[in-house]
Specification:
The complex is a heterodimer of chains A (217) and B (104). By secondary structure, chain A is mainly alpha-helical. Helix content of chain A is 78%, strand content 0%. In chain A, helix 1 runs parallel beside helix 6, helix 2 packs across helix 5 and helix 3 packs antiparallel against helix 4. Chain B has 104 residues and is mostly helical. Chain B has two domains: 69 residues; 29 residues. In chain B, helix 2 packs antiparallel against helix 3. The chains are: A mainly alpha (217), B mainly alpha (104).
């Protein structure tokens, strides 16, 4: 250990032979779960692609109503949050616990900013009658394929938003845990495993943004 | 803990941190550039050709996140296999469905 790092480690549970085996088991478990999540979102992406191919005119009409610049800004916000999460992981490996907590809080703040912008976007969609499921007249009435794509847009972004909300809540809970002395000596692995989840949320949005806001404009 | 706060002012510590943050910083810059290209194409020159370029750029962004942010390139072969297999299943799903719609 160099003099610029502090001790880190994990408490080894009895079913594991050593810390490395426990670390690998936890990360493999997270990867298996992320694969199931990917398949969940893949079904929605598949429907979007089919609508793009079968009804390009209707999809274009819907896409032109969506808030392109808010979507772009939100993508940038999530990329920034991935960077701060990477910072938290690197700092956790060096044992810099205070700085790691700051990076986690910055990540949670960026995640919350994304949700605020998304909420504002939903408000604008509502104001422009682009929420066909709330009972108000739909802006593109008479175009059932565009209604399908708009509904898909809400299902996909709401599902992603639910993942992000859960992610922010877990991150704040972990930051609260991690502000106590000794966290990184016993539970450094949690930051690594959680980091995979956060980067995955970012990855999903990186697919959602072009598929729903950009392609077919 | 106070040592941890003051260590950030130590040049050797900052150098050590930068050494570790170089790859995430590279990934961050690359992702922002890819995003700028996608946004630029979508805002200034939306077309069918641009859509194919945008899909290619998205594939580059996915690879950047997987390899550098999620560090798949540093993982064990078993972990890399699981990361790959998820996208392989998605590839089969997309391939079989699109084979139908694109060949009509």
């Amino acid at each position: 250990m160099s003099d610029v790092t502090f001790p880190v480690g994990i408490d080894v549970h009895e079913q594991f032979a050593n810390a490395d085996q426990q670390r690998h088991a936890a990360q493999l478990g997270m990867w298996i779960w992320l694969v199931t999540e990917l398949l969940l979102f893949a079904g929605l992406f598949m429907v979007a692609l089919v609508l793009h191919i079968m009804h390009p005119g209707s999809v274009r009409a819907a896409v032109l109503h969506f808030k392109f610049w808010i979507g772009a800004a939100n993508t940038a916000v999530l990329i920034c949050s991935s960077f701060t999460m990477s910072g938290a992981i690197m700092l956790s490996r060096m044992g810099w616990q205070r700085w790691m907590v700051r990076c986690m809080l910055a990540t949670a703040a960026l995640g919350s900013l994304f949700l605020l912008l998304k909420g504002y976007e939903y408000y604008l969609d509502y104001a422009e009658h682009m929420m066909p499921f709330v009972g108000q007249p739909y802006a593109l009435e008479g175009d059932p394929a565009s209604r399908l794509f708009t509904n898909l847009y809400f299902v996909t972004t709401a599902l992603h938003g639910a993942h992000l909300t859960t992610g922010v809540a877990i991150l704040l809970w972990m930051a609260w845990q991690a502000h106590r002395p000794g966290f990184l000596q016993a539970r450094q692995n949690r930051i690594e495993v959680y980091g995979l989840y956060w980067h995955f949320i970012d990855l999903i949005w990186i697919i959602v943004f072009p598929l729903l806001y950009v392609v077919g404009r | 803990m106070s040592t941890q706060l003051s260590i950030a002012h130590d040049p050797a510590a900052r150098h050590a941190l930068w050494q570790r943050m170089r790859v995430p910083a590279f990934a961050f810059v690359a992702l922002m550039l890819f995003l700028a290209a996608i946004v630029g194409l979508g805002a200034l020159a939306p077309s069918r050709t641009a859509s194919f370029i945008e899909i290619g750029l998205v594939a580059c962004m996915i690879l950047t996140v997987l390899l550098f942010s999620m560090e798949v390139r540093l993982e064990t072969p078993l972990m890399r296999f699981f990361a790959l297999i998820g996208f392989a299943w998605v590839g089969i799903l997309f391939g079989m469905v699109l084979l139908d719609y694109l060949s009509r």
